Amino acid sequence: MEETEIIIEMRSSREWGPFVVRGIAALLVGIVVLLWTGLTLEILMYLFGAMALIYGVMLVVFGSTQPVGRTSTTLAMLLGVLSAILGIAAIVWPWLMAAALVTLLAALSIVIGLSDIALAIFSVEGTGNRLLLGISGALSVVIGGIFMAFPIFGGLVFVALYLGVFAIAYGIISIITGISLRGEKTRA
């Protein structure tokens, strides 16, 4: 029989500071996101627009430096122009783009929910899993319907829940990790 040796690297108790600083920063970001969710969503749309615009320009430049007549050249330039237009639209109309993106995600949520419900109904596997799959599918359809009806509300909820709550939870865990590292004695 072969033995496996597991080596656990001990962290130095002097390394607690970065964990606490990172945790405090994440906690502050999470609180700011929850307090100013609308502003955060608008800033995210500006960043998304800038990223799409830069990507579009890069694709157009790439396409213009390739030999004429190649299919990838035409496709790159077309995608570059479309990406640049999308980026400009996100910068000029951030709330409209946020609503459009949330509507797209809501439609996807509804389709996935309906497929989960269909799978739960027509599946021949265990009934307990089918019930849970049906419930999760119904929840996905309801959330998708709400967000499709109120896309700006959906965008604000996405930002608050996913960014704000995640950042706060991450910050708390990092602070606890740092404090627990500080309390440990270093072994030589």
TrEMBL record:
Gene Ontology CC terms, in alphabetical order: plasma membrane
Transmembrane segments: 19-37, 43-63, 75-96, 102-124, 131-153, 159-181
Pfam families: DUF308 (PF03729)
Superkingdom classification of source: Archaea
Keywords: Membrane, Transmembrane, Transmembrane helix
InterPro entries xref list: Acid_resist_chaperone_HdeD (IPR052712), DUF308_memb (IPR005325)
Secretion signal span: none
PANTHER family: PROTEIN HDED
Name of the protein described by the UniProt record: DUF308 domain-containing protein
Lineage, highest ranks first: Archaea, Methanobacteriati, Methanobacteriota, Stenosarchaea group, Methanomicrobia
